[in-house]
Design brief:
By secondary structure, the protein is mainly alpha-helical. The chain has one domain (30-117). It is built from five helices and four strands, in the order ααβααβαββ. The strands form two sheets. It has a two-stranded parallel sheet. The longest helix is centred in the first third of the chain and has 11 residues, at 16-26.
Length: 119
């Protein structure tokens, strides 16, 4: 663990209530700046789950909460940046998954696999 890291505060800052009612109103989008949102999507039924089933557990939990497609930690719906001040962020790509192509999990997005990561 990184010294001085406050995990409880970090998790609080990621709650929907904090983002909607504190962060977004205090940090509106600025004209002239290109905002882009990125997100991943996985298919929990694939051949790679034997190696690292972590994201699949998250995917199933999100599915039970009816959050829609997700990367095992963040739903695509919540990965979008809301429009403000007349600025509409871009969202590109058409993500598809299959049994042979599992998609991109949150852990792959941050280069974290089986608790092995680059730092």
């Amino acid at each position: 663990m990184i010294q001085g890291q406050n995990t409880a505060a970090l998790l609080h800052d990621l709650t929907s209530n904090y983002v909607k009612n504190t962060f977004n109103p205090n940090t509106p989008n600025q004209k002239g700046i290109l905002y882009q949102a990125y997100g991943g999507k996985i298919n929990p039924v694939n051949f790679t789950t034997i190696l690292d089933p972590t994201a699949d557990v998250g995917y199933i939990l999100y599915a039970l909460m009816k959050a829609g497609d997700n990367d095992g930690l963040v739903s695509l719906k919540s990965a979008h940046i809301p429009a403000s001040n007349g600025v509409t962020p871009t969202w590109k790509g058409n993500m598809t998954t299959s049994v042979l192509y599992p998609g991109v999990s949150h852990f792959a997005e941050i280069d974290h696999f089986l608790d092995i990561h680059t730092g």
